[in-house]
Design goal:
This protein has about 140 residues and is mainly α. It has six helices and three strands. Strand 2 and strand 3 (about 90-95) form a beta hairpin. The longest helix has 30 residues, at about 1-30.
Length: about 140
């Protein structure tokens, strides 16, 4: 019985991931970035300065792929690179003012999509959903 429920939960989580990825695609199109570029930009919500290694590890990307994305976002004026004063072998990556404006748009679009999606739930259902997600992700 538990295996059937685990299988059903896995199936529903996969559907939720696919649904969320479609939102990511919509958001990326609105801000004229690729999905990968949008995912990189969203990391500046959590940290103002990052390294290529941090980003590559967090996004499970190769060094060459993250370098490509950093170069692309730098060319678009959304991020900048500066040498790490503690270790010249590394560069610190941060969002520019233009990048922060794009990040604000990403966040606004994402918030609106989520608000639209969650409007089907009552306040109590949403509280329970959030409680269960916290429990699930805190493991």
């Amino acid at each position: 019985m538990m295996n059937n429920k685990a299988l059903k939960a896995q199936e529903l989580i996969q559907k939720m991931i696919i649904h969320c990825e479609s939102h990511e695609y919509q958001i990326s199109r609105k801000v004229k970035l690729t999905r990968s570029e949008t995912r990189v930009m969203k990391f500046f919500n959590q940290d103002n300065t990052l390294t290529a290694i941090n980003l590559a590890n967090a996004l499970a990307l190769t060094k060459s792929r993250i370098t490509f994305l950093i170069n692309s976002l730098t060319e678009k004026g959304l991020i900048k690179r500066e040498p790490d004063i503690r270790d010249r072998r590394f560069q610190i990556i941060s969002a520019t003012k233009k990048g922060m404006r794009v990040l604000d748009k990403i966040n606004q679009f994402q918030l609106q999509l989520c608000a639209d999606e969650f409007s089907m739930f009552t306040e109590e259902e949403l509280d329970e959903f959030i409680r269960l997600l916290i429990k699930f992700t805190s493991k």
